[in-house]
Every structure is written in structure tokens, then in C-alpha cells.
Amino acid sequence: MSDELRLPALEVHQSKGRKLYSFAVDGKLLQDFVTVSRVRRGDGNELSGYQRPEALAHIQEIRAYLEAPSPLIPNSIILAFDSRVRFEPAKGKTSLPYVRTGTLVIPLEKNIADPDKPGFVVDGQQRLAAIRDANIHRLPVCVTAFITNDVRQQTEQFILVNSTKPLPKGLIYELLPGTDAHLPSPLHRRKLPALLMERLNLDEDSPLSGRIRTTTNPTGTIKDNSVLKMIENSLSDGVLFHFLRPERAHGADVASMGEVLHHFWAAVARVFHAAWGLPPKKSRLLHGAGIISLGHVMDAISRVRNVPLIPTEAQYVEKLMPLQELTHWTGGSWNFGNGERRKWNNLQNTPGDIELLSKYLCTPYQKQASRSL
């Protein structure tokens, strides 16, 4: 048996087919019909949810403020409701054509599991947790909500609301492949790299499967930002650039890009097998400097004459073999020439060190490319 919570509300027609609902409600009641959809991956590696974990220290600070005399929270909580929530317009018209007054009707069900509640938090998770835990009787809050059964639309709004706030960038990057929203330019540019990184991390046959550290894969040892940078460089002026296709979904031939990345990194694993299974602290191969520099090698190989656009793993292995004697991923010292020597673990993930290592590793392929001109 379910009850209903009926709240006076405004319905705002913001754009074609898009409606917002503005209302006030006791913050203590929100937990009865609202859940936090925390980001996670299912058994099939599909991404669901879109929230970050609770920030306990931040919640404690808000709670202390709420328990002080006369607290004020002027910012609206943003919620997404599914279609079980409905709006009943009041009789009569308002003076504004895009606003209607009425009642928002929210179903309430006792002992309902969190995933089955009709409301989801888009923005305000930490505030709601603080209100929930605070030793106060009641705290009315302002809420802005929209109604949709499309989780992708909920995710899009979460990205847009939080992209300008101090939110973990890795969480946003992991959410990007699953949204079709019109995104700000910096986020739009990272959508394709994020999709390719997702495939590298989730495809079972990928040489980097499960090894990239993300919000849903915190045990990975390779920094997601290093992989994104490697992919972005190649999309800008490397081998992946040749597969950009404006007429296709995602603006690219994603399958061919995935083949190139899979074949190259599988070859890296074979050629440098002793350094491959080690964490970045014990091997500079999968350290940020190694990942980005080897990405430049992948692009340099593509410029050598008679190298196909999508080399096989075996072809990449053949091209990488000469680097075995030149590299010192796990011990010894790098000899960069002109008196420049570095102990193996003194290479850092800095622009200067990445440029130094990239030039050193790419030199053999640049010479081959110049001879073929």
C-alpha cells in the first residue's frame, strides 16, 4: 500500500518538451522518496548511476552548520524523478505563459528499497546527507526537479551541473561515453578519448583490461589521465587522426581506432614483458611518462613507409624490437646523449621528461621515415 506526498509546485516550461518543477519540502522527508544513484558497473561492465561517494568530512562540516542557530541553505537541491511522479495543474491561468501553478504528487511506499524510489539526486548529495544526519527536527529546502525515465538524461544533467565544481575529473571522464548531451567544448573534446579509454579498460581481450584506474576500477594501477593524454595526442596529429569520421556516431571510426590501440599495446606487452606486469613505482613502462611517450612511438611508427594504417600485433612487435636495447624501464640508467643521463626511476610525469623520453624513443622511426621520403 502506498501513500502520496502532495506538494505545491510551479511547472516551468523551459524549452521544447523540457519542464522543470520548483517546490519546497522538509529535507528530512527526502530520504523517503529519493535515492543517491552512485556510479558503478554491472556484471556486464555497463555503467550505471552517476554520483560520487559521500564526502564524510564535508558532510560533517555542513551538519555542524545546520545544528547551529538559524542555518540558511539558499541553493536548490536538484532531483530527477521517474514517471511515477506527476504534476496536477491548478485551475486558472497565470500571468506568464511558461509557468503553471499546481501540485506535484510523489508516491510514498513503506520499506521501499533505495533503487526503487522514484527520485534521484542530481546535485546536493552532501547537503542531503548532512540534513539526514543532523540533530534537527525539520529543515525545509528548495528543490528543482525534472521528470524522465531516461537515466542518460539524468547523467547528462549531473555532468553539466558538476563539471564546473570541484568534482573528481575521473568520474566525469568515465560518464562521458554514455551521454549524448550538448557538452561544453572542453568536455566534448574528451568524449571520444574517454570512450576509447573505456574500451581499453573494459574489453576482455584488451592488453590494458582492468589496469586503468577509474572511479569504478579503483584498483587499477595506470592513471586514467595518462591514457587520455596518450589518446588525445594521437587524435590530434597521430595515427588515430586518420580514423576521424564526422559523419559517424562519435565522429570517428571507433572500431578501427580500437584495433590500433589493442594491437599496439599488446605488442608493447610482448616486447617489454619483464616490465609489463609491474606497477608504475617499479616500472616506468606504465608510468605516466612511459604511457604518453609510447603513444608518440605508436604515432611515429605510422609515419614509416610501408606500415599499414592498422598494423597487426606482429607488425608492431617487429617495429618495437629495436627499442629493447635502448630502454631501461625497471633498472639502470637512460642515456639520452649529449651527456644527459637519468637513473631509470628519475623520469617523472612532467612535460619536460615526457618530451625528453618521447624524442629518444621516436628517433629510430623518425630516421626511417626521413629515409623513405
From TrEMBL:
<dbReference type="InterPro" id="IPR017642">
    <property type="entry name" value="DNA_S_mod_DndB"/>
</dbReference>
<dbReference type="InterPro" id="IPR017601">
    <property type="entry name" value="DGQHR-contain_dom"/>
</dbReference>
<dbReference type="Pfam" id="PF14072">
    <property type="entry name" value="DndB"/>
</dbReference>
<protein>
    <submittedName>
        <fullName>DGQHR domain-containing protein DpdB</fullName>
    </submittedName>
</protein>
